[in-house]
C-alpha cells in the first residue's frame, strides 16, 4: 500500500471557509455513510458513526486515535485520500483498524518547525536541535535508538519508533505541554518506550 506520507503529497486544494475539513466514511473506498467534520470529534459513536473505514482530508492536519476520547495509538492525517485503514496506520507492525476519535493539529507549521532532542529524560544529557525530516536519526549521528525527552519550539512533529517512519507514531505539538515532553509517558497514552528512530514535520 502507499504510505500516508506519500499519499498526502497528491493533495487536493484546501477547502474554502476554514483551516480544517475532513470527510469520513463507514466503508472502504469512500463508500457508505458519509460525514463532514471541521472540528474535533471525541467519539465517532457520539457523532453518529460506528466505525470509520476510509476518509479524505481536504484541509489542515489532523490527529486520529485508535480509541474514543483521544486515547490509544495515534495517527497523523495530512491532506490527501485514505481509501482503507492501512493508509493511515502507516506501519506493517501494528494493524489498528479502528479510528474512534480525531481532532485538528492546530500547531502544524511545516516551515517553522523546530525541536530539540535530549539523550535523557527531563532535558538532560546530549542534545540536538533539528528543523528537518530525518528518516534515520542514527544515520545522522544520534548516539542511540532512544530519545529521553524533547522540546518542541515550533510546529508539530511525528516521531516514529523505527527508522523509515515505521512503528508506533507519537505526534508532539508546540502548543501541548508548552512544547515540553519530559518523559516518554507524555508522548501519548499508548507510549511504552523511549525508542524513537525517525522524525518528520507535520504538513499543514
Q: Which labels suit this protein?
A:
disordered N terminus, 2 helices, 204 residues, 4% helix
Explain this structure to me?
By secondary structure, the chain is mostly beta strands. 4% of the residues lie in helices and 40% in strands. Strands 2-1-3-6 form a four-stranded antiparallel beta sheet. A four-stranded antiparallel beta sheet has the order 9-8-10-13, with no helix packed on it. It has a three-stranded antiparallel beta sheet with strand order 5-4-7, with no helix packed on it. The protein starts with a helix and ends with a strand. Keywords: Eye lens protein, Repeat. Belongs to the beta/gamma-crystallin family. Residues 20-59, 60-106, 113-154, 155-203 form the Beta/gamma crystallin 'Greek key' domain. It comes from Varanus komodoensis.
Strand-helix topology:
Blueprint: H1 4-7, E1 21-27, E2 31-37, E3 54-59, E4 62-67, E5 71-77, E6 80-82, H2 86-89, E7 101-104, E8 114-120, E9 124-130, E10 149-154, E11 156-162, E12 166-173, E13 180-181, E14 198-201
Antiparallel strand pairs: 1-2, 1-3, 3-6, 4-5, 4-7, 8-9, 8-10, 10-13, 11-12, 11-14
Keywords: Eye lens protein, Repeat
GO molecular function: structural constituent of eye lens
Pfam families: Crystall (PF00030)
Amino acid at each position: 500500500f502507499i504510505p500516508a506520507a506519500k499519499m498526502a503529497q497528491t493533495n487536493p486544494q484546501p477547502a474554502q471557509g476554514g483551516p480544517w475539513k475532513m470527510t469520513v466514511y463507514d466503508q472502504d473506498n469512500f463508500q457508505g455513510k458519509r460525514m463532514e467534520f471541521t472540528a474535533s470529534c471525541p467519539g465517532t459513536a457520539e457523532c453518529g458513526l460506528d466505525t470509520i473505514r476510509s476518509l479524505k482530508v481536504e484541509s489542515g492536519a489532523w490527529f486520529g486515535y485508535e480509541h474514543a476520547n483521544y486515547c490509544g495509538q495515534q495517527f497523523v492525517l495530512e491532506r490527501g485520500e485514505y481509501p482503507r485503514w492501512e493508509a493511515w496506520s502507516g506501519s506493517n507492525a501494528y494493524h489498528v483498524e479502528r479510528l474512534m476519535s480525531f481532532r485538528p493539529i492546530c500547531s502544524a507549521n511545516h516551515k517553522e518547525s523546530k525541536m530539540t532532542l535530549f539523550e535523557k529524560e527531563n532535558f538532560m544529557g546530549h542534545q540536538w536541535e533539528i528543523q528537518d525530516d530525518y528518516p534515520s536519526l542514527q544515520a545522522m549521528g544520534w548516539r542511540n535508538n532512544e530519545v529521553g525527552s524533547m522540546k518542541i519550539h515550533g510546529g508539530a512533529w511525528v516521531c516514529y519508533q523505527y527508522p523509515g517512519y515505521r512503528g508506533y507514531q507519537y505526534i508532539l505539538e508546540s502548543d501541548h505541554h508548552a512544547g515540553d515532553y519530559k518523559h516518554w509517558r507524555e508522548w501519548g497514552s499508548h507510549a511504552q518506550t523511549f525508542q524513537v528512530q525517525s522524525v518528520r514535520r507535520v504538513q499543514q
